[in-house]
Amino acid sequence: MPMPWRRLHRRNGRTRLLALFGLWLWLSAGPVQALTVQLLGVAPGSEEFVTALKARLGPGHDVVVRSDTAADVVVALHEGVVAEARALQKPLLMLQPHPGSNPPGPRESVIYWAPSLSDQMRLAMQVMPGLRRVGLLVAPHDMARAQALRSVLAPQRIELIVRQADPSLLPRQVAELAAQSDLLLAPVDNQLYNRSNLKPVLLAAYRQHCVFIGPNPAYVRAGALASLHATPQTLADNVASAIRSYESEGRWPPPAQATRFDVITNSQVARALGIRLPDADLLTRQMQSEKVVPWP
After folding, report:
1. In this structure, what DSSP letter does residue 230 have?
2. Number of helices (H) and strands (E), helices first, in the chain?
3. Residue 10 burial class via C-beta count within 10 angstroms: exposed 0-12, middle 13-18, buried 19 and up
4. Fewest 10 Å CB contacts: which of 35, 80, 242, 294?
5. Which residues in the chain are classed under CATH 3.40.50.720?
6. Poorest-pLDDT segment among 27-31, 47-51, 232-236, 291-295
7. Which class does domain 117-229+261-288 fall in?
8. CATH number for the 35-113+232-257 domain, one of 3.40.190.10, 3.30.450.40, 3.40.50.2300, 3.40.50.720?
9. Which has the closest alpha carbon to 39: 112, 106, 88?
């Protein structure tokens, strides 16, 4: 009968043999091939996102902003480059503000980076707890979301006044709606709310002493009270997570909302309107203490 120390010696020998065999298999497999990620739609202002994405993915991935036929996956940064991205016939991840004209097809997925109307409304109630009448100007394609939000708000005794917007008449429509509302909510829609009409729209609201929420940080810097937005770091986190999921499972995760929204505020506007505005970091923590609402 073998002595115990002899059995232990044999067991250790087998363990060393298995370890050496595993090392041989790893060395014979050669270096792991880096995944090439091609970004389409990179424009001035995208640098922070690109830098953050490279940091999140690490040196095992090659992130390129030029045309690269050898790319493994493609990320379309806005809707204007989706057709070009699809022509490459690669696995495609799209960044879009919300569900719209480019639903994902096979081997495609989407990250929606704009807050929902429900999340914007939660922010409005944080900055104006006694809110009773909210005005909302939307394009025709957003009317369904607006009506759904009205149903959500009805049990809370908050009246939502919805009007269909005409981009050529937007400042006048804003003035008329502001006269009937405690607060105006502006959805993320570059066809309606953009840099070209930013100042006249805000002036129309404040001449009626009406609070304006959204749609983006540029509006807040110009005079809106507050807005929700996904930072470049948040979008980089979400894109990197989707790419890793594709690597490990061979398919994209389902379309999803950005996982985090930060609050930006304008304290000067708050003082001018006589509103005691909580700190932006505190508002961000309060918003993030509840789950992101993707719809309406």
Report:
1. -
2. 11, 12
3. exposed
4. 80
5. 35-113+232-257
6. 27-31
7. alpha beta
8. 3.40.50.720
9. 88
Instruction: Give the pTM.
Output: 0.85
**Which tens digits make up the pLDDT trace of 115-139?**
999 999 999 999 999 899 999 999 9
Dihedral (CA of 18, 24, 29, 32) sign: positive
The whole-angstrom separation of Cα 74 and Cα 91 is 6
Could you list the beta-strand ranges (E) of the chain.
Answer: 35-40, 61-64, 73-76, 92-96, 108-112, 133-138, 159-164, 183-185, 211-213, 226-229, 256-257, 262-265
Q: What's the average model confidence in pLDDT over 62-85?
A: 91
Interhelix angle 280-288/117-127, nearest 10 degrees:
130
Q: Where in the chain is the domain with CATH 3.40.50.2300?
A: 117-229+261-288
Structure tokens at 76: 């379309």
Token pair for residue 146?
A: 């607006």
Q: Taking CA 193 as the corner, what is the angle to CA 105 and CA 121, rounded to the nearest 5 degrees?
A: 80
Q: Are 201 and 174 in contact (CB under 8 A)?
A: yes
**What is the distance in angstroms between the CA of the first residue and the CA of the last residue of the chain?**
75
Three-state SS for 34?
coil
pLDDT band at 199 (very low <50, low <70, confident <90, very high): very high
* CA distance readout (Å), 44 to 92, 186, 190: 22, 25, 17
Q: Which residues pair with 110 in a beta bridge?
A: 94
181 is written with which tokens?
A: 């509302």
DSSP code per residue over 175-201: HHHHTT-SEEE--S-TTTSSTTTHHHH
Cis peptide leading into residue 215 (ω within 30°): yes
